[in-house]
Structures are given as C-alpha cells and as structure tokens.
Design brief:
There is one protein chain. This protein has about 475 residues and is of the alpha/beta class. Helix content is about 50%, strand content about 10%. It is built from 21 helices and 10 strands. It has helices at about 5-15, 20-35, 45-55, 70-80, 85-95, 100-120, 125-135, 145-155, 160-170, 180-190, 200-215, 235-240, 255-270, 295-300, 320-335, 350-360, 375-385, 400-405, 415-420, 430-440, 450-460, and strands at about 40, 65-70, 180, 270, 280-285, 295, 315, 340-345, 365-370, 390-395. The strands form 3 sheets. The protein has a 6-stranded mixed sheet with strand order 6-5-8-7-9-10, with helices on both faces. Strands 1-2 form a two-stranded antiparallel ribbon. Helix 9 packs across helix 10 and helix 18 runs parallel beside helix 20.
Length: about 475
C-alpha cells in the first residue's frame, strides 16, 4: 500500500464511527468475490453515519435512512479522498497486511496441502503405499481422516512424526505372528507406539489395510468417492480405544463384531492383538466341570471342541453373582453342574463370543438370562441377532418381569424410557411395553429363585427353563 498521507491519518479516517458498520460488509463482499464487485446496503442509518457517507460519497444524505452503493463506487470515492487509497489498501490497514481474499486463502491452502502431500510421499517406499498416498492426496482413500490429522500437525510443526513412524512400521510388514506391542517395540522403539488409540496406530492400521487390499485383490486399495471416509473408518474410531476384551465396556455387540473384523485384518498382516485380557468364565463342561475357570481369548481360540464332551445346550448368564450362585448349587448338592455354564460378566467379551461361536457351531442352544434394563436387553438382543434360533431367552419375558418387579425397585430415567421405546426384542413383543408402563428395573439377582428352580427342573427333565 502506498497511500498519500500517513497510515495513521488514513486509519483514523477509516475508523470514524460513521463508517464502522460499513467496513465488515465491504470485507465480506470483497472476500466473497475476490475482487471489487457487488452491492452493499446500509439501513437504519444514524446521524453520524449519514454525515460520514455524505462526506465520502459526496451525495446528499439529508433525511435518508438507507443507502445502497456498489463497491466500484466506493473504490472511486476512496481514490478521490486525500489519501487516494483503494478498497484493498483500506482492508489491509483495518485488518492487517496478511488479510487476503478467499481465493488467495484457497491458493495458499492448496500450496500448503501440496507441500504436505509431497512430504508424506517421501516415506511411501512400497508401490502399494504410493498408490494409497496418491489417493489420500486426491481427497479419498481409506484413512483420509487420519491423513488430515497429519496435515494439521504438519501445518503447525512443519512435520508429522506419527506419519513417519507409522510408515516406517508399514515397511516391516508382513510380521511373523507377532503381538502388536512386540512388533511396535521392534519397529518404533515403543511397545505402545502403534496402539490403536494413537495417531500413529491409526495411520498404521489404514496403511496396513491398503497393503492387504492390494495383496488380496490386485487392485487399487479402498477406492471411494472423493472426500469420503472408508465405511469402516467411523467404526474404527469408535473402537480404537477399546481392546475388545473389556467386559465393563459399554461397547455394543455391533462394535465388538467390528473389532473382530479389525482383529482379522491385523492377523492377515501377521500381527496378533491382545488375546489375554479378554476372558470368559466357564463351568460345568468337560475338564471345567467341577471348578469354574476364566478362559482367555488365546485359550478359547485354540480350544478344540472335539476334545470336550458334546453338548446340546449351554446356559449363559450376564452377572457373576448369578454364575456363582449356580456353581454354589452344584457344590451344595455334591454333584457336578448338569449343564455347561458361561458368564459374560456384563457386555460379552470377544472371548465369550468366540466360545459361544464354537459351541453353536455344534448346533447347541444358548439359554440366556440377563437384567431387565436397557443394557441387559441390548446385550440380549445382540446375542439373539448373532445366534438366531439357537438363542433362547431364559426368564427374560414379560410374564417373569410382571411377577417379580416391585414398586421400590430402581426406576428408569427418561432417557432409558426413550431407549426402550426405540428398542426391539424379537422374542417377546409384550416385554418392552410392560417395562415402560412399570417404569422399574429388574435385575437377575431379584429372580435368582426362579432361575435356580428352572435349573433344578431342567436338570430333572421337567421342561424348558422358560
């Protein structure tokens, strides 16, 4: 800018109270068009605004409440002042020298993005990764969201260490049946360097899937519409901080199923996820007949059901207290449990699901009992969906609820009532309505007598336990 007069005097002229409402509108219009174009209307003019506009545009503003002008007219008016400035000069003075139009901003952002993409590409190495990065650079491809996170890092720091770490680890694939922390320690120096809760871990995951797609299909990985994330990307975001095994997690069975897919993708790359923390309690089956045992996923996966007694039915309970009570029943009667018994300890862990998968492969029926609350029914509905006709609800019906619920039991919150309204349970179309009308929760411990009676009756061949 090279206006006549000093910038200070010009700035004081531009900031006079009568023009203060005009400049934000001028800026917005100029940014929008990227040039001098468009019309601005000022309405409800105050006296000081009429005076300022009259002086600037050399027009009679007497009695006028509105004033409309084109930016081209303002440009001419500014040139005719003693400062002889342009609109752009004025905007730079008012908003700083780094002020720029949207077009200028877009051009700078595009150049910054291109620099980042070139920087990211230098770590590609493998042809499959080059293709993947080209797709990400073009605005699509699996993992586009984490690529944007790296871009933000790059803009702030001039670097994205997570990207470099993850790409270096990708070059070490396939692994040879290594657990993820062991692989991460070897390739990054940090056992947690590729945890799925970290940015490097998420980059590594999507790069790994890109490599696998290429290997499996011989085609370009993860092609999608520009600007769209991969179908699994949202699900991965939801499950990345969990380890499937956590029985206290609020994960739905759907997210656990998604975790199974993720686990399988790691396995294809020769990487084993945590298979120790995920456990399931079992009693009354083969070598586990007498005392209950906690089986980790590692053991469940290696379990050869052919070596265990065949079973036609297994009883599954949500709560450890019920599991313990049923085991106590066996100890008190001095006999082994009559049926295999499994406890999910709340939300079924991956170990629990894999064990039930193996059991139902042999066409066994699952008798399931859980709490009469939102979480309990959500878990039961998920198991019903997973196991279909092999899932049989055990004392999880409207009749049991009516007979056992009492007025002093905990009540549902309004949010829980709404959740019950949205829910569906395929085995009893009366249950949810009865629960909503009652407004009370009912827990397994409050129907323990009924469960024990069923257990005893079923053992003696006196019918189904529901």
């Amino acid at each position: 800018m090279s206006p006549s007069g000093t910038n200070t005097e010009c700035l004081a002229f531009l900031r006079q109270p009568g023009l203060q409402r005009m400049w934000p509108l001028v800026r917005k219009k100029y940014e929008s068009y990227g040039r001098i174009a468009g019309t601005i209307r000022l309405s409800g003019l105050r006296e000081e605004e009429r005076d300022a506009l009259e002086g600037l545009f050399a027009v009679n503003m007497l009695g006028r409440s509105d004033f409309r002008f084109r930016l081209a007219e303002l440009e001419r008016a500014l040139q005719e002042t003693r400062f002889q400035v342009s609109i752009k000069d004025c905007l730079c003075l008012l908003y700083g020298d780094d002020w720029m139009t949207r077009q200028e901003q877009r051009e700078i952002e595009q150049r910054s993005w291109e620099r980042f993409c070139r920087w990211a590409s230098q770590f590609a190495g493998k042809e499959e990764l080059k293709i993947w990065i080209e797709q990400l650079s073009a605005g699509f491809g699996s993992g586009y969201r984490v690529f944007l996170e790296c871009y933000r890092d790059y803009c702030e720091k001039g670097d994205s260490p997570d990207w470099a770490v993850a790409l270096e680890a990708l070059h070490q694939l396939p692994a040879r049946n290594e657990r993820l922390p062991v692989f991460a320690a070897r390739t990054t120096g940090d056992p947690h360097g590729l945890d799925r809760s970290t940015l490097a871990g998420r980059i590594f995951y999507w790069g790994m899937t890109a490599l696998q797609n290429r290997y499996r299909h011989g085609s370009e990985p993860g092609i999608q519409e520009p600007g769209r994330t991969a179908p699994q990307e949202d699900s991965f975001e939801e499950t990345r901080s969990t380890d499937e095994a956590d029985p206290t997690s609020d994960n739905t069975l759907e997210s656990i199923s998604q975790s199974e897919v993720i686990r399988a993708q790691y396995a294809l790359a020769g990487i084993v996820l945590d298979d120790i923390s995920s456990i399931v309690w079992v009693a009354g089956w083969g070598e586990y007949a007498k005392d209950p045992v906690a089986l980790p996923l590692l053991t469940v996966e290696r379990l050869d059901t052919d070596t265990l007694p065949s079973i036609s039915e297994v009883f599954v309970v949500e709560n450890p207290s019920i599991f313990g009570a049923l085991v106590d029943w066996g100890l008190q009667t001095g006999s082994s449990l009559p049926f295999p018994l499994v406890c999910t300890s709340g939300q079924p862990s991956l170990a629990a699901l894999r064990l039930l998968d193996k059991i139902t492969d042999g066409q066994s029926r699952i008798y399931y009992s859980g709490d009469f609350d939102v979480k309990g029914l959500t878990m039961a509905a998920g198991l019903s969906q997973r196991y279909g006709s092999r899932f049989i609800p055990w004392r999880l019906d409207a009749e049991t609820y009516r007979s056992a619920v009492r007025r002093h039991f905990p009540s549902f919150s309004e949010a829980e009532i709404q959740a019950l309204e949205r829910m569906q349970v395929p085995w009893d179309d009366r249950l949810l309505k009865v629960m909503r009308n009652s407004g009370r929760k009912l827990f397994q411990e409050q129907i323990l007598g009924l469960l024990l009676a069923d257990w005893e009756a079923h053992k003696n061949g006196l019918g189904q336990p529901f």
